[in-house]
Amino acid sequence: GNSPATIQVHGNLSLGPNAELRMEITSLGNIKKFDQLIVAGEFQANGILTLENHLPLQNNAAQESLGFLERIPLVEADTISGEFDVIQGNDFLPNESFYLDVLQTASKIEVVVMPTTWHNAHNALDVNGDGHVSALDALFVIDWLNQGRRMVGLPRAAAAGKFNLVDINNDGFASSIDALSVIAALNIRKSGEGEATMQEFVPDDLGVRYYAMQVAYEDILEKRKAR
């Protein structure tokens, strides 16, 4: 038919090099619908995956849209091997805010709504996207730096689903300046001088990073004592 459907295969399914798997995501009667392939066995990916998405990508998920980090399971199987040679369709190329990324794991192939940058355009200081600015946001940046990561690049989907928007000043890098922006905003809020806002800092070295981590840790201890 012309509407999305779920196809179940009892047994192994292997796609050839010239095969094309066409999938669709849409909304019918205010209900989100999408094609899905469920294989009770091994699925071997090959050939072309074509996705036709009719829903807009935006920050908040709704029945007639796809939201930030929302996942659509296109293929589920006992085991998945191989990979598609070509992945094509609308929304795979990044636009100003979001794009669709394909995530393949050992038993699932999903499309995930990903942001085009590591910067939270709605609240730059809210690194983990929980709707609040806290010392944890600074610690997420510090953890990123401790892993030796600096350039952020295009965000890619991950199996864990956790995603931290560490580029607070939106310069394409993660640095201690980003962590200090959170710390400064928290200190302003604690002292009652005003609302948490973006701050700019010049130093960017290990000493500054240690200071940011120390202040964030002390803030967490204070909150634990208050419980």
Number of helices: 3
Strand percent estimate: 25-35%
Could you tell me the mean pLDDT?
83
Shape type: elongated
Distance between the termini: 58 Å
Which sheet architecture does the biggest sheet show?
6 strands, mixed
For the secondary structure, the number of strands is 10
Q: Summarize the helix and strand pattern as letters.
A: EEEEEEEEEEHHH
> Low-confidence parts lasting 5 or more residues at pLDDT below 50?
194-207
Fraction of helical residues: 10-25%
Class inferred from helices and paired strands: alpha/beta
Rg estimate, integer Å: 21 Å
Quick summary:
This protein is of the alpha/beta class and 227 residues long.
SSE layout:
Blueprint: E1 6-10, E2 13-14, E3 20-28, E4 31-34, E5 36-45, E6 48-53, E7 71-82, E8 86-89, E9 98-104, E10 108-115, H1 135-146, H2 176-191, H3 206-226
Describe the structure in your own words.
The structure is a single chain. With 227 residues, this protein is of the alpha/beta class. 22% of the residues lie in helices and 30% in strands. The protein has helices at residues 135-146, 176-191, 206-226; strands at 6-10, 13-14, 20-28, 31-34, 36-45, 48-53, 71-82, 86-89, 98-104, 108-115. A hairpin with a 2-residue loop joins strand 3 (20-28) and strand 4. Residues 194-207 have low confidence and may be disordered.
Key terms:
single chain, 227 residues, alpha/beta, 4-stranded mixed sheet, 3 helices, 30% strand
